[in-house]
Amino acid sequence: MLEALITSKTRINLLLKFFLNSSNKAWLRSLESDLGESTNAIRLELNRLFKAGLLITVDEGNKKIYTANTAHPLYLEIHNLVKKHIGLDRIIDKITSRLPNLDKVFLVGKLANGIDSKVIDLWFIGNQLDKKYLLELVEKLEQKLNRKIRYIILSNTELANFLKGKSADELLLVWER
Question: Is-contact 150 120, C-beta < 8 A?
Answer without folding.
Answer: yes
